[in-house]
Amino acid sequence: MIALASLRQRWRSLLGTVLTLTIAVAVLTICGLLLASAHPVSPGRYAAAPVLVRPIPPADPEAFTESRPWSAEDADALAARLSRIDGVRTTIAEHRFYAQLMQNGVPTGDAQDASGWSAAALGGYALREGRAPAGSAEAVVDSGLGIAPGSAVTLLTARGPETFTVSGTADGPGLWVSDELARDRASGVRLIGLLTTKAVDLEAVAALVGGDGQVLHGDGRAAVEPPADARTRWIGLQVLLAVSVLAAFVSVFIVASAFAFATRRRHRELALLRLLGALPRQVRRMIRAEVLLLGLAGGLAGVPVGLAVTAPVARWLVRTGFEPPTFTVAYRLWVPLAALAAGVLVALAGAVAAAWRAARVSPLDALRESALDDRPMSRLRWLAGLAALAVAVLFGVAATGASGPDLGSYALYAAMALTTAGSLLAPAILPPAVRLLTAPFARGRGATALLVRQHTRTAARRTASTAAPILLCVAFAVLVGGMVKTSTAAYGIGRVTDAGAAAVVVPAGTPGLSDAAVTAAGGLSTLPTFLYAGPEPLPAAGISPAEDTLFTVGTGDLPAIHRPAAGEASLVAAITTAFADQEGWTLGGSYPVTATDGRRYSVLVAAVLSDGPTPAGILLDRTVVRVLDPSALTTAVFRNQVGSELGGLGARELTGSAYARADADEDDRLVWVFTVILIGVSAGFGLLAVVNTMIMASAARAADLRLLRLSGATRTQVLGMLSAETSAVVLVGGGLGLGVALAALAALARGLSAQIGAPVPMTIPWGTLAATVGACLVLAVFSAGLPALSRRPA
Length: 794
Description:
alpha+beta
């Protein structure tokens, strides 16, 4: 009851905290529902096959690579055995290869592969017009494209543009060619579909397949979703997790800051309660009860908002490429309940320190009139702040030696620790910083500068509470933007530096470059593929003799990979030192692998490369890779001069600097959308906290403002003093936030430099910094002056 009465008296000052919790619970509800809905979906092209059999997939679900294929002969033999099972009407081994429809020299349509016509039955597709394809130059296309049978179309394949005649149209999406052509062009077989007349004994199917494959049925068929869709879904998962973690962290930080300020403001009230006989545990219980009520209020308001906004957000994620087109929202009751509970826990976590501090208020403080912070930095606060600083240093050191996703994670953790340290140590930092900032204006001992300097000294904790959300807002806005700019530039620098290229030819609307595009570009390139040790993929690449000069040989003979192997089942390769250490391969050794054609080979190691940038751990001759993987596509071609004729080849040319920036690259587009989301979440919460804290801070100084007015100060002078004081706090808080971001970005840049072997400059998003500080300044000055406008001298 005491907690409820206290909230009634202070409801206006707590609206900002409730709004923060409302938004946090809404964000958690949205992210929770989307995360619960992020599961694989079975492709429509297998809808009519109740049972699917695929090779054993890689153990790492985040590899996003195709499973090790069967050879055409092994797939035929397995399909023949499966066809003899009772209830199986027919079995179809799917042969797929890269193909895209070209119109006016531009890739069109959603299909990026073609299959043999027999595989159309797996999706239940049938001819709508014309006949099935035959020979090597006929194709069936989706009737929705509006292409009539008999028309000539261009399909872009791994070889280059090829002309086909449309023999018919089908009532489903896709491209189909004759089974013979698909078998010739496909890189092995990765799926066998079973069309049945009745329920099939799945145990019999699994016993027949044995250890050569995996049997899928029902919802389990979703496991064969395309790796590109799985990767998109994984990216969306990272976005949602990052937003959830950031929203929770920022919410805890803001609630902690708000309640720390509120507790300090209620110092005399709490001291009176202690003087009347309240025990410390009762005071803590009262604070926790208040927070619990606020958390429930924010949660009950946030859950309906989250439920209403989830569907539009899901559609936006699909449009922007963070979720595959098959993504749909599944509403589950436990998600909003969990979000509501999370909101309460966030509120309680934010108020732990406030409750502990409130319980330690001395009853004698009720007799004090001064607002002086006699101990703005307690021993515990010093220890906690220095501990957070030490943790930040540890994460920064770890970031300099990390690689891959860990590098960015360590930088983010360092920023979180530094933000916490900055807020804890702010009472010790802010007064001298404000004095230094206002020193140029205090030479004539003006009243405004004097009041600003004295207030930050005597009310250090209150000033620190107002600076904390500004520190948070600036730190994360600058950090997130800087991390993306620095990382993007680093990877671009690494790629262009490695090749020494003046121009780079990259795909345009296609997943890779065909052989025709590579020939037209006429530069240096590699042809990526995979070899398999068991079911696990080993990245490999094909190079021509011209690319040999890009690599430094440690031991062995690199040109040997271009000479014919001793036998048909042998491959000659060069490996990197890192790959040798990881897999245990040695110079002169022979190792069994399965290639993308599904056949087994022995790899003879002819050379070990020194440490340095390489496209893959295994290098083979390019012509050998083309035979093993007829559908392989080149990622990019590096040229020494600008000017390539690439019309109708699904390619475009960029200058070396443009490629380094990679502004138009799809991955970079997704990264920048991700960046905007994170900046929006962190800055949005931060700006809300700035407004809330400034209003509370000005309301807490009502007596001081009245005294100034009674002493003869005009309203304009009071507003000027508040504006000057607020501006100083914003600038100092923004400076601390910038320092936090710079420290984390410096660790990231050093780690990237070590990773790519080239200097990486730290990129600071000055525009983001200026916009964030400007928004904080405008909102803070307005919020601080708003209560003063309504104050009349009594």
